[in-house]
Amino acid sequence: SYWERRVRSSARARARAGHVVLVTGASGFVGTHVSLHLKRRGDGVVGLDNFNDYYDVELKRARQTLLGRAGVFVVEGDINDRELMEKLFDMVAFTHVMHLAAQAGVRYAMKNPASYVHSNIAGFVNLFEVCKSANPQPAVVWASSSSVYGLNSKVPFSEKDRTDQPASLYAATKKAGEEIAHTYNHIYGLSITGLRFFTVYGPWGRPDMAYYFFTQHILQRKQIEIFEGPQHSSVSRDFTYIDDVVEGCLAALDTAKKSTGSGGTKKGSAQFRVYNLGNTSPVPVTKLVSILEKLLKVKAKKKLLPMPRNGDVKFTHANISLAQRELGYKPTTDLETGLKKFVKWYLDYHSDLRKYSS
Length: 358
Ligand code: NAD
Ligand code: UGA
Known about the structure:
Bound molecules: nicotinamide-adenine-dinucleotide, uridine-5'-diphosphate-glucuronic acid
Order of helices and strands: HEHEHEHEHEHEEHEEEHEEHEHH
Radius of gyration: 20 Å
CATH superfamily: NAD(P)-binding Rossmann-like Domain
CATH topology: Rossmann fold
Distance between the termini: 21 Å
Oligomer: single chain
Strand order of the largest sheet: 3-2-1-4-5-6-11
Number of strands: 13
Largest sheet: 7 strands, parallel
CATH architecture: 3-Layer(aba) Sandwich
CATH class: Alpha Beta
Shape: globular
């Protein structure tokens, strides 16, 4: 069928010994960037995304158009759909899976807990069930989150620190993902790498994230709310630029050792790794806002509010020495430089949405 031809052609690697990668959440923010980079360097890439309406679906469609122009086909489907997933693995011998599909967002978990269970727990298990039975077994790299550190008060966060105090249901499902992945590695010999991203931002970003809707609201002269810690202390994030995260994702794929199992049996010991992919320089949210004011040349209407008990943590700060040593990961973009690129994209994208209509 036409659909199958599109999948096969998208999966074809141009580079000799190129990977063949299934990217879940391909029309998401990180998925779009990772897919484009993989395709550009000659890997075969097939995307999968359910185009859910957690945020602006038009933006997901625009990313899909961008991917289509680069030769990446995005299959529309859910990671919970066992039949579809098995069909994809029957059609294509994926060497790697880059699993980015998830219900993201920390505060939304208060409103819609079920969507976190659907994608981050049930869908997560379904994906690993399919991967463990695939022949050959793909190496899996997936997105965990800095939120697993929860109410940890030791900074910077390193991989060996405690992760037993999640502050939100989102964080709890990300932490559960790490435990689930570990059992699939242990029992079935799947090669698995978890990447704890730290508040990733950049062009084609997520409209539900603060840097994005602050930009929108500042330009529209609408008020923004800035959360503060106790005694008016600042809340900070280790904001990490998308290109740096993409480098880390590609290095994780490239250093993943082959799985040792196949067809659901463990044949030896495969690797299980978890890395922080942060920026190592936390910035207060107030500073994020002042950089945006400067770049947009508009003064923000700010309202300071005490940090609500909605799953937020007061600060995040990555220790990246493990990723540096083992993946050669080295973030190079500071917040102001990265936001400049985001704002340029934002103004361009929102000035003419037709550019990306398919
Ligand atoms: P995103 O929401 O833009 O991308 C996720 C994509 O997955 C979306 O396009 C969505 O439609 C799709 N999806 C969701 N559930 C699905 C399902 N059940 N089946 C198929 N597709 C589904 O988010 P993002 O910022 O690109 O995040 C990618 C990954 O990184 C997620 O796992 C997220 O939790 C994690 N992460 C992101 C950040 C960040 O700051 N952006 C930080 C830490 C972790
Ligand atoms: C982000 C992503 O949304 C999560 O999916 C991801 O897992 C997480 O990073 C992570 O690093 O693991 P968050 O850091 O909360 O979560 O990102 P934003 O929602 O963009 O918030 C950034 C900062 O702005 C936070 O300190 C938040 O408290 C603050 N904020 C947010 C405000 O001050 N006002 C608002 O109206 C919204």
